[in-house]
Write a structure and sequence with these properties.
- The chain is mainly α.
- It is 55% helix and 0% strand.
- Helix 3 packs across helix 5.
């Protein structure tokens, strides 16, 4: 939009009106500019609790346990089926990470004494770290162990499929029908609280096990030696 030039000979009323129009036009262009965002599109949208400067992802409406609107790379997908598939994967990885984050330092503490007592070679590396892709030492693990792991994983997946088919629409992501101690509450509020605890602990465990891997790869020392405060007696 073109505006008349403002000069020293322009009357005060026209000058004031022209300046206001220019400012309003500039503000309007800023609102439409991608750098400033489109006010028309963002107006009325709920913002993400985790990232308050971004709109809450469409699929993350708070119905799933642990949902804080955090999905900056849109991993959840465009529909509910994709979201539930990703939640299933997150739950399973969380449970594996929670087991691993306990087993990793436990192996570094008791593998050598136990192996020595039974007359077997230790599976730890030369530095006393747990075997891993970055630490090495996986070649020392017997093939029978890996076969048993694959068989166990297959059994868990088959049981998971049976539960999914049996429960239909009432199926919850990650439900394998395994709750021998009846930890899972029967009321909706209790179930949501328990699932929230599980997913939060699982996310923390995934970050922790990644930290173990990176720390040992960089410093070439077992986690239990790097942080003895958590793994060895104080006195």
């Amino acid at each position: 939009m073109a505006y008349p030039p403002v000069t020293a000979f322009t009357s005060p009323s026209v000058r004031s009106s022209t300046i206001v129009e220019r400012q309003e036009g500039k503000t309007s262009m800023m609102a439409k500019d991608p750098l400033f965002g489109d006010d028309d599109k963002s107006a009325g949208k709920e913002m993400s609790p985790a990232l308050p400067f971004l709109p809450r992802p469409k699929m993350l409406d708070g119905t799933l346990a642990g949902d804080v609107g955090f999905d900056p790379f849109n991993f959840a997908g465009p529909d509910k089926a994709s979201l539930l598939y990703m939640r299933e994967a997150e739950i399973k990885h969380s449970r594996l990470a929670m087991l691993a984050v306990v087993g990793w330092p436990l192996a570094e503490l008791i593998d050598k004494p136990l192996a020595d007592a039974l007359g077997y070679p230790t599976l730890l590396t030369k530095t006393g770290a747990s075997p891993s892709l970055l630490n090495g030492g996986l070649g020392k693990v017997d093939a029978v162990y890996w076969i048993m792991v694959i068989i166990l994983a297959g059994i868990v997946e088959l049981e998971n499929d049976k539960v999914r088919e049996a429960k239909g629409k009432s199926y919850l992501p990650g439900d394998c029908g395994f709750d021998p101690f009846n930890f899972f509450p029967t009321d909706k509020a209790g179930q949501m609280a328990m699932m929230t605890k599980e997913i939060k602990h699982g996310r923390l465990a995934m970050m922790a096990i990644l930290g173990f891997v990176v720390q040992e790869a960089l410093y070439r020392a077992p986690v239990v030696a790097e942080t003895p405060l958590f793994f060895k007696p104080l006195f």
